[in-house]
Amino acid sequence: MSSVDHIEALKAKHASLEQAITQEVKRPHPDDDVVCSLKKRKLQIKDEINRLSSPTSH
Q1: CB 18 within 8 A of CB 42
Q2: What pLDDT shows up at residue 55?
Q3: Can you state the angle between helices 3-26 and 32-53, rounded to 10 degrees?
Q4: What distance lies between CA 17 and its chain's CA centroid?
């Protein structure tokens, strides 16, 4: 898998996590632990995308 493909896959996962967070928050009694866990994973993915996208990583 090329780095471009990997970044695109990470972006798709990031969007999926955003959707999961939105769905959890809209529930009548959202689980704060689930929301926190999803947000942490989303941030990890964003950091990885930024690391792979930076010019110094090549």
Answers
A1: yes
A2: 77
A3: 160
A4: 5
